[in-house]
Design goal:
Uridine Diphospho-n-acetylenolpyruvylglucosamine Reductase, domain 2; 3-stranded parallel beta sheet; globular; binds iron/sulfur cluster
């Protein structure tokens, strides 16, 4: 570790004032940032402890949705009765991530801000455009088994590591943020970004802004849902591929479908064409196969991850089948 300054913010204004310094970073659970600092991947000169800010509640919104405070712990969010009842997909996705100890520390806002687990990003002896813009990308010619197959660029082929964010993308959450210019709401689809020619930027949150809450809209996807995660071991491993699926089925037909996939791209991946292929159809395997073909149509593989498109298709089809049967599972 290296020397840095530590400040504890007592209110939102003082936190934002401290973050106006571009060498300052906010810290809450610290489950990713401290690792990055120990490895000298990130070297903020000042840490602004935001854990005392009043962003610790989960509450109903006026429209019947739910607001998840940025500082509520992942474990608390997954166990919250309203989340379990109204957004069981989110609860399941959170519990698929990390370990109980990490979920007890990690905050909701921090989950959105966690950085890629690309091996080369963490190894400061290697070239990495995300860590050091313009230095190259060791993953392109290195070991790229866990890397992206959709939306990558010549600059970076990293994937976003979160499980929670895949479910939030499917549920069309909105990220409520505040900065020196005031508050704004960012639709989840626009929060994270593809690498393009600026892979050092993971998302559209400005450095002097803070996440206040994540808001879930009131749509009901609590009956037919699934979060399916394929990984190298049963727990405490990042997804090779994951699928968050939520369906509304009425009178034997899919009225609405939401699909988001993890492990495939620099952000949770949605394909509205794939979702539209399901709308108005009977929930049968042939229909699911069409949606999976559409979603993976543009996949580009690298030397060690050519298994991923097929794994993603099978994972998505399995998730859709399980989501269709979810109500029967519940009542069984
Ligand atoms: Fe760095 Fe991205 Fe290349 Fe990994 S894939 S080495 S994070 S530039």
């Amino acid at each position: 570790m290296y020397p840095f300054r530590y400040t504890r913010a007592t209110d939102l204004e003082s936190a934002l004032s401290s973050l106006a310094d571009d060498q300052a970073r906010p810290i809450a659970g610290g489950t990713n940032l401290l690792d990055l600092m120990k490895e000298h991947v990130m070297r903020p000169e000042q840490l602004v402890d935001i854990t005392r800010l009043p962003l610790q509640t989960i509450q109903k919104t006026a429209d019947g949705g739910l607001s998840l405070g940025a500082l509520v712990k992942n474990a608390e969010t997954a166990a919250h009765p309203e989340v379990q009842q109204q957004y069981p997909l989110l609860s399941k996705a959170i519990l698929a991530g990390a370990s109980p100890q990490l979920r007890n520390m990690a905050s909701n806002g921090g989950n959105l801000m966690q950085r890629t687990r690309c091996y080369y990003f963490y190894d400061i002896a290697t070239a990495c455009n995300k860590r050091q813009p313009g230095s190259g990308c060791a993953a392109q010619t290195g070991y790229n088994r866990i890397h992206a197959i959709l939306g990558a660029s010549e600059q970076c082929i990293a994937v976003h590591p979160s499980d929670m964010c895949v479910a939030l993308a499917a549920l069309e959450a909105v990220v409520h943020v505040r900065g020196p210019k005031g508050e704004r709401r960012i639709p989840f689809a626009d929060f994270h970004r593809l690498p393009g020619d600026q892979p050092e930027l993971d998302n559209h949150l400005a450095p002097d802004e803070l996440i206040l809450a994540i808001e879930l809209p009131p749509e009901d996807y609590s009956q037919h849902f699934e979060y399916l995660k394929v990984r190298d071991r049963h727990s405490y491993a990042f997804a090779l591929v994951s699928a968050a699926v939520a369906l509304q089925i009425d009178q034997g037909l899919i009225q609405s479908a939401r699909i988001a996939m993890g492990g495939l791209a620099h952000k949770p991946w949605r394909d509205l064409k794939a979702e539209n292929l399901l709308k108005g159809q009977a929930p049968v395997r042939a229909c699911f196969e069409q949606a999976a073909e559409q979603l993976l149509a543009g996949a580009q593989t690298y030397a060690h991850n050519d298994f991923k498109p097929e794994l993603a298709k099978r994972g998505l089809i399995r998730a859709l089948e399980r989501a269709t049967a979810a109500s029967e599972r519940k009542s069984a």
